[in-house]
Amino acid sequence: MNLTAKETELLKDLKTQEQLCIEKYEKASQCAHKEELKGLFSSIANVERDHLKTINQIMGGSLPSTSSSASSSSGSDSTTYTALDYSDEQQKKDDAFLCQDMLTAEKHASSLYNTSVFEFSDSQARQVLNHIQTEEQQHGEKIYSYMSANAMYS
């Protein structure tokens, strides 16, 4: 697969975004107060690693299948969260901040993938990027669901 200069630049942006998301999710997992949230952030970080691997493959000229292990680990299921006991109000504020920060990162990542889907000339590449974008949206949905269950989203 031959990439145009524009496609190469878009992939560089996506690679940087994925690297940033991985680092942010790892740090958020370490900082989160509730184990359920730590687990959510760690799980999403693993999917972001799959995304980075896919971007690197595309940059190397190969197109991975959209039926990768990433789709099963991303969880297209609708996760339901129950309200947790946040007896310490500062811990709740801290976790809400982490969630909001990661939700914002997901919105940005999804936007970058959206632009890339429209800019790539290869239809298979667009399908792969669209698949990743869908997973990014699912990450946002999971974070929103956690926030909503814990009265963190206004």
Helix- and strand-based class? mainly alpha
Q: Mean of residue pLDDT? A: 92
Order of helices and strands: HHHHH
Low-confidence stretches: 68-76
The largest pleated sheet is described as: none
Describe, in plain words, how this protein is organized in 3D.
With 154 residues, the protein is mainly α. Helix 1 packs antiparallel against helix 2 and helix 2 (35-59) packs antiparallel against helix 5. It has five helices and no strands.
What brief labels describe this structure?
5 helices; mainly alpha; single chain; 154 residues
Brief digest:
The protein has helices at residues 5-31, 35-59, 69-74, 89-119, 123-149. By secondary structure, the protein is mostly helical.
Fold topology:
Layout: H1 5-31, H2 35-59, H3 69-74, H4 89-119, H5 123-149
